[in-house]
Amino acid sequence: MKTIEQIRADFPELERIVHNKTLIYLDNAASTIKCKSVIDAVTRHYSFDAANIHRGVHYLSETGTMQYESTRDALREFINSESREQVIFTKGTTESINLVAWSWGIDNLKKGDEIILTTLEHHSNIVPWQLVAERTGAKVVEAPVDDNGDIILSELKKKLNSNTKMVAFNLISNALGTINPVKEIIEMAKSVGAKTLVDAAQAIAHMKIDVQELDCDFLAFSSHKMFAPTGVGVLYGKKDLLNAMSPWQGGGDMIDVVTFEKTTYNELPHKFEAGTPHIAGVIGLKYAIEYIQEIGLSRIEEIEHELLTYATKKFSDIKGLKIIGTAKHKSAVISFVIDGLHPQDIGTILDQQGIAVRTGHHCTQPLMKRFGITGTTRASFCFYNTKEEIDKLVAGINKAIELLG
Fold first, then answer.
1. Is 382 marked active-site?
2. N or C: more exposed end of the chain, with fewer CB within 10 A?
3. Do 161 and 18 belong together in one domain?
C-alpha cells in the first residue's frame, strides 16, 4: 500500500512553486492533476506511436488502435458495463449529455413531455435539455433541494407522472458535494416509465460505480476529473437505446457504406464516434484507471472523507464563514461564503499564498439563486491532499479576512 508521500510523488504538479510557495491544489472538482503514468503514456504515444487509428494496416496504426481499444475494455470493467460496445468515447461529460439530448431526445420527446432536472445540476445538464425542449415542445421541470442541499425526494416524486420521459441528475453535486441517492431516484423514475441519465463527472474517481447495479439508462463522465487528459469523455448507455438512437454527428468511422443516395451506419460503439478522436488522451485514460485501482476506491473514499471531516471542523472555527451545502452524505467539497467578502477576492488572496481554489457560481447559477447568493469559494479535496494543506488553507482564509475585513 502506497503511503501519502509516495502517492504525492506520483503527481509532479504538487512540486510546482506558485508565488514562491509550494502549490496546494484544492480545485479537484474542476479538474484533477495528472499522475506520472498518464503523462508518460501520452508522451510515449506522441514520441513513438503517433498515427491515426482504425482501418490502418501499418504497424503504428495497429498499435495505436490496440492501445485505444484496450481503454474501452478497461472502462467496461471499471463501471461494470454489460459489453464494451456500450462504452462510447466523447469529448467530455458535456458532449455525452448533448449526445443523449439530441440523439435520444429529438427522436423520443414531443409536445407535453417532461424532462425532470434537479436544482443541483451543472449547466451542462440543463442547457442541452432546454435546447431540445424548445425544438420538441417538451418541458423542463425542476426538482428542488432543501436548505442542506439535498434533493427533496417527496417533491421529486410529486413531479413524476406519465408525461415524464427523462430524469437527468448528477450523482455528486460539483458545487456542494451532495451525494445523491442515485438508486432511489432511478427506481422512482422507472415507476413512471421514464429514462434516466446520471452525470457521474464528480463521482467517477471517488467512489465505486456499477452501472448494472444502478440500472441507469445512461451515465456520463470526463477523463480530466480522474487524473487523465482533458478532451476525453465517456457515455455509457443501454444497448437497446443506443441501437435505436440516430447518430448525432456524421463523418469518418461512424459509417458502414456511403453513397449519395443513402448512408448506412457502423455498429456500436463506432456509430457515435465520428472523426479522428483524442487518441493519446484515451490511451492515457487507461493508465489513470489502473492508478485509481492501484490506490483502491474504498481507500480513496476513506481518505477523502477524513479530509472533509477535518476541514469542516476547522472551518467551523472561522468567524463569519458559512458553509453552503451541509448534506449528510457529502463528497470532499466545501463551498463557503464569508460575511462582507467577495469570493473572487478570497480566491485571489489564497492564490498569492500558493493555494488553488475555485470561485464563482461553478456553472450552477440556478443553485446559487436557490441559496440567495451569486457565488462561493470552493475547496475540493482529493486523496493526495493532506491535513497540513488544510491548515494552510484555514490560515490563508483568516489572512484574507484580516486583509479584506
1. no
2. N
3. no
Bridge partner list, 167: 116, 196
For the stretch 287-327, pLDDT in tens is 999 999 999 999 999 999 999 999 999 999 999 999 999 99
DSSP string across 151-220: B-HHHHHHH--TTEEEEEEESB-TTT-BB--HHHHHHHHHTTT-EEEEE-TTTTTTS---HHHHT-SEEE
In this prediction the pTM is 0.96
Is residue 60 within 8 A of residue 279, CB to CB? The reply is no
* CA atoms of 108 and 217, how far apart (whole Å): 14
Q: Is residue 32 in some structural domain?
A: no
Verify that 15 and 158 share a domain, yes or no.
Answer: no
Q: Are residues 248 and 337 in the same domain?
A: no
Closest C-alpha to 378, from 368, 388, 366: 368
Domain-embedded: residue 33: no
Choosing from 35, 216, 363, 382, the catalytic residue is 363
CB-CB contact of 301 with 307 (8 Å):
no
